TrEMBL record:
SUPFAM superfamilies: Supernatant protein factor (SPF), C-terminal domain (SSF101576). It holds the Pfam family GOLD_2. Signal peptide: none annotated. It comes from the Eukaryota. InterPro entries: GOLD_dom, GOLD_dom_sf, SEC14/CRAL-TRIO_domain. This is GOLD domain-containing protein. Residues 1-116 form the GOLD domain.
Length: 132
């Protein structure tokens, strides 16, 4: 299995289903895509928004590569956009995992937005941001 890893130091703003500036990646069969997000301020939040073309994908969020904060599940992201938020009570690296390791033959094309939103941004309802 191969693993692609992206590192994101900080993202401001938020994601929405209407956002057309999503990052795209292809995840080969039997591969995973890991995206690291650095949370540097207490009470920040991680938000995600993603969709795939034609087939499902596995999704999981872990903290410091060991504590599962959003358990693995296969999601029907080809049928509807998947969105969510996780409050980060601990500082450190959170890893978003898009998992296609269960697929023996199909690569998956995924479009996604990931953001770390700091507390004052949550309170001021900031909605613009930089996309990975």
């Amino acid at each position: 299995m191969h693993c692609l890893t992206y590192f994101v130091l900080f993202q401001d703003g938020g994601a929405s289903a209407e956002d057309t500036s999503m990052t795209q990646a292809t995840i080969n069969s039997r591969d995973v895509l890991k995206i690291n997000l650095a949370v540097t301020k207490p009470n920040s939040s991680i938000t995600w928004s993603f969709l795939t073309q034609n087939h499902d994908i596995g999704f999981q969020l872990v903290f410091e590569n060991q504590k599962v904060v959003v358990p693995f599940r296969r999601v029907q992201s080809h049928k509807e956009i998947q969105e969510g938020t996780h409050p980060c009570h601990s500082l450190g690296t959170y890893t978003v995992i898009f998992d296609n390791s269960y697929s023996l033959a199909r690569s998956k094309t995924i479009s996604f937005n990931l953001f770390v939103i700091e507390p004052e941004e949550v309170n001021s309802n900031v909605t613009s941001g930089v996309v990975l």
